[in-house]
Amino acid sequence: SSGSGSAPRSLPGVAAYEAALAANPVLTKCATGGVLAFLGDIVAQRAQRAPADGDEPQPMLDARRLTAFTVFGVGWTGLFNHYWFGWLASVIPGASLWAVGAKTAVQHGFCNPVLYLPLFYAFNGAWTGLSFPQIRSKAEAEYWPTLTKLWTIWVPSTAIQFFLVPTRLQVLYVAGVSFGWNVRSTAPPRP
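The structure corresponding to this sequence follows.
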């Protein structure tokens, strides 16, 4: 159940991760969010920059974008979600069908549309050098398609999170799903 389960310690690194969480949970979760955002954006950029047949190789990674994703992973995925998931578990305890549904509804009816996406567009746009009108234009053009795409992946993932993943491991879970989300949502479409 949410907040009380134990991870299988036989998997490589689990005991070390649990020890790091016990010693410094916020730093561990921030590092987790940052490292997985960093790796996810490297994979996504490499996929975007892979030359098609006969095309010239694309330039190296966009370091500014990579840094923006990494810093956002530290701040949002690691830091914000550490406190957010703890708060949700305190106001809606447990993993009953009602509790999971309520937490998922708050996450996707409030947190993601009102906080996450606007902050993502503002932060990444500003970090990568876009002007406010450019950020606004990008957000207006992409907000609803991105939010509906987000819901298709994240609503079921979040329900699983709140049903099965202990609160102390939820940032790790979300960072892992975010890795896949970042790769898939920024990769070029398949032919």
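The chain is about 75% helix and 0% strand.
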